[in-house]
Amino acid sequence: MDVRRQNMEDTLVIDTVEKLKIFADPLRQSLLQAFCCNPATVKQVAEQMGEKPTRLYHHVDLLEQNGFLDIVDTKQIRGTVEKTYQTVARKIIVDHAMLGSLEDDAANTEVKNVVMNTIQACLVDARDHFDDEALRQSGQAAVVIAQAKVQVTPTQLKVLEEKLDALLKELQAIESGDEEQTEYSFTAACFPISRSTCC
Q: What is the Cβ-side half-sphere exposure of residue 106, based on CA atoms within 13 angstroms?
């Protein structure tokens, strides 16, 4: 049975604080990334992440029970059922209604956790890049980084969001052809700045 990316949706929208709390956990975000690359078992992902499978089963169960993971295959192995999972969607976003009403302390805390964990994951990727001598010597260690403060209207922000979404889809659809590919970490963040920090 071919279980590669079966019935994967384009987007999953997080629309409750409960689901946001589950998603905000950094280990679960790493699991979702791992299961998005290719359908896999918990043991396969544990090996890839350098974790013990027993540490991951509870988190995988939570993700599956709350609609973040699909079971795409099962196999009987010595009296137990081995499950193969994949992330239900290529992209997971937080409902705009939740982002627009962050006066709710619970929602505000969990959205902040998601943002901070995402930035932390980016920093870990960057650290690993600069610490990997083999990668630096490979000739494929190019780094692209940009940061800016801009002023935009809500309409312009929506256009920017749509362009970023289109760019991500384009990047994810790139085929390798005959050339060897190198995996890159791509992170984009956009949020209003506190008035006290504005120039």
A: 7
